[in-house]
Backbone:
């Protein structure tokens, strides 16, 4: 079964893809919805250059689709339909854990494109899952977070100790509710670790972000 990965560049989409590969499914393409100019991702605020580097380490094509929030769903469905034919796809893999509204949306857009929606991480225990992700060699860095966490967490590598610290502070250790987002630096799917540009840290509207030097 050939699949497309809804690729955010972060830990959950990465580990969902690893799980799908481990069950014998075949990855064909990565899909990321970008901002209007097609240079930075809508989900994690990652520059196209970093997403392309991740894709190259997996020897997979990356389809970065420029979109507004208003036409996001229509663009997503049309892209799934086009890629179903282009890459001979049977399914799309997503990294959601337990937000029902997200699963409902993914089922809806996949049904519209005659694809099967696969969610390998669905309803797994958060702390157990993040520990499993780390144990399986997925190295990730926190690249954005809310001001409850604060700027001091940006640039930190997600470890079991850090996940436990977040949980003890009442923060979802997977960041499933948007508390933080991560960037995959290395994993079993990569031929080697990616190289990051220099970055600075900024806070806008109660959210803290890594600002990549090559995108300033």
Residues:
């Amino acid at each position: 079964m050939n699949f497309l990965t809804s690729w955010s560049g972060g830990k959950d989409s990465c580990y969902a893809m690893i799980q799908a590969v481990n069950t014998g499914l075949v990855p064909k393409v990565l899909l990321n919805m970008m901002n209007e100019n097609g240079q930075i991702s809508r989900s994690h605020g990652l520059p196209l250059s970093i997403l392309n580097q991740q894709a190259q380490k997996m020897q997979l094509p990356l389809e970065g689709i420029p979109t507004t929030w208003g036409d996001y769903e229509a663009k997503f469905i049309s892209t799934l339909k086009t890629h179903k034919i282009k890459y001979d796809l049977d399914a799309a893999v997503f990294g959601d854990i337990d937000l029902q509204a997200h699963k409902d949306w993914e089922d809806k857009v996949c049904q519209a494109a005659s694809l099967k929606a696969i969610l390998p991480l669905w309803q797994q225990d958060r702390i157990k899952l993040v520990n499993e992700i780390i144990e399986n060699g997925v190295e990730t860095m926190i690249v954005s977070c809310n001001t409850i966490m604060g700027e001091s967490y940006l640039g930190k590598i997600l470890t079991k100790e850090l996940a436990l610290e977040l949980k003890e502070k009442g923060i979802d250790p997977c960041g499933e509710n948007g508390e933080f987002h991560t960037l995959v630096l290395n994993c079993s799917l990569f031929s080697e670790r990616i190289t990051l540009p220099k970055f600075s840290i900024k806070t806008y509207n109660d959210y803290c972000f890594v600002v990549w030097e090559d995108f300033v």
